[in-house]
Amino acid sequence: MTLVLVCAAGAVGAALRFVVDGTIRARAKMRFPLATTVINVTGSLLLGALTGLALGHGVPQLWHAVVGTGLLGGYTTFSTASFETIRLAEDRRYVAALLNGAGMLVLAVAAAAAGVAIGLRV
């Protein structure tokens, strides 16, 4: 049953990513992959918060698996971020590629740490 719930939540997360990505791209007309950055940073914040809740307040393992692995795993996308970074470099936009690759990593890790802190304090 856990596998079915994780898969269903992953589908919802992927659909949510599709909607958020399309909404940001429609509103922010830019050549920088802002949508993927927003998605990965917000997903990291939420996963951090869920982890903090699990560590500090005993959120059941099933919830952590379904929401963390399923929903947020489907929502976030490391592969797209990697692809977009390579595309920026191929277009000789080296500064943008560096900002996208390294910047997203730093922001996502900081967001995850903030999320853990929030989850522990709630």
TrEMBL record:
Any one cellular-component term (Gene Ontology): plasma membrane
Transmembrane residue ranges: 33-55, 62-83, 95-120
Top-level taxon: Bacteria
Binding-site positions, Na(+): 73, 76
Record GO terms (molecular function): fluoride channel activity; metal ion binding
Membrane topology, as annotated: Multi-pass membrane protein
Activity regulation, short description: Na(+) is not transported, but it plays an essential structural role and its presence is essential for fluoride channel function.
GO biological process: cellular detoxification of fluoride
Catalytic activity: fluoride(in) = fluoride(out)
Annotated keywords: Cell membrane, Ion channel, Ion transport, Membrane, Metal-binding, Sodium, Transmembrane, Transmembrane helix, Transport
Compartment(s): Cell membrane
InterPro entries xref list: FluC
Function: Fluoride-specific ion channel. Important for reducing fluoride concentration in the cell, thus reducing its toxicity.
Homology family: Belongs to the fluoride channel Fluc/FEX (TC 1.A.43) family.
Protein's UniProt name: Fluoride-specific ion channel FluC
The species this protein was found in: Microlunatus antarcticus
